[in-house]
Amino acid sequence: MKLRGLYAITDSQLLADGKLLPYVEAALNGGARVLQYRDKSGDEARRLRQAEALRELCNRYGAALIINDDAELAARLGVGLHLGQDDGSLAVARALLGRKAIIGGTCHAQLPLAEQAVREGASYVAFGRFFNSNTKPGAPAATLDLLETARARLQLPIVAIGGIDLHNAAPLIERGASMIAVIHALFAANSAAEVERRARAFSALFEQQA
Ligand SMILES: Cc1ncc(COP(=O)(O)OP(=O)(O)O)c(N)n1
Ligand SMILES: Cc1ncsc1CCOP(=O)(O)O
Ligand SMILES: [Mg+2]
């Protein structure tokens, strides 16, 4: 599938109390093309149950499901994977998940990390945080200039992440982001209808710059 558009990422605090499935479905209805299941709890049984439910939802909407951090869970479900710099080897994950799996890697604000991710078989590279992030305030800061340089040098999709909202997303797309990954500005909402409205608005930014 083409990796372009809104990349929604779940958060177990924002999506507690029965919100996970309705809010994710709203994001998919609003046009999210990729969904990352990001759950830092050690509750394996719950993680498996939720990831299976998300796989069913994503299949229904023709969206890709990506598991954060956990190559074994991604392999078990036959879905994609996102790995940070301390989450294990991309090359090992590629060997485990096969040629077709979507596998992404965090590259913070460093082009050499992206070049290494490409060599190890990544499907996309992610830079950020680009703005102040509620979810991960300590992530290293990346710039629009870095994004533009990466776009010129790399042949694979680039994901921008970190503090992205409806007011600051457009320049990231203009300067080379294939996808924008969003947690707080998408899911910190009072209703599923509001999540859908936001997802639609994020997705429309890509149509304007097709
Ligand atoms: C699309 C995307 N980009 C970056 C990250 C961050 O990954 P990581 O650095 O491993 O941090 P955690 O998300 O695991 O806290 C991501 N998850 N997704
Ligand atoms: C996981 C991650 N990696 C860098 S910033 C970030 C958090 C993104 O969340 P938000 O969209 O709420 O800033
Ligand atoms: Mg990680």
From TrEMBL:
Q: Which residues bind 2-[(2R,5Z)-2-carboxy-4-methylthiazol-5(2H)-ylidene]ethyl phosphate?
A: 133-135, 163
**Pathways per UniProt:** Cofactor biosynthesis; thiamine diphosphate biosynthesis; thiamine phosphate from 4-amino-2-methyl-5-diphosphomethylpyrimidine and 4-methyl-5-(2-phosphoethyl)-thiazole: step 1/1
Catalytic activity, as annotated:
4-methyl-5-(2-phosphooxyethyl)-thiazole + 4-amino-2-methyl-5-(diphosphooxymethyl)pyrimidine + H(+) = thiamine phosphate + diphosphate; 2-[(2R,5Z)-2-carboxy-4-methylthiazol-5(2H)-ylidene]ethyl phosphate + 4-amino-2-methyl-5-(diphosphooxymethyl)pyrimidine + 2 H(+) = thiamine phosphate + CO2 + diphosphate; 2-(2-carboxy-4-methylthiazol-5-yl)ethyl phosphate + 4-amino-2-methyl-5-(diphosphooxymethyl)pyrimidine + 2 H(+) = thiamine phosphate + CO2 + diphosphate
Q: What is its EC number?
A: 2.5.1.3
Q: Summarize where Mg(2+) binds, as residue positions.
A: 69, 87
Q: Which NCBIfam families does the entry link to?
A: thiE (TIGR00693)
Q: What family does the database annotate?
A: Belongs to the thiamine-phosphate synthase family.
In its UniProt entry, what is this protein called? Thiamine-phosphate synthase
Tell me the organism.
Phytopseudomonas dryadis
**What lineage, starting at the top, does this entry show?**
Bacteria, Pseudomonadati, Pseudomonadota, Gammaproteobacteria, Pseudomonadales
| Protein's gene | thiE
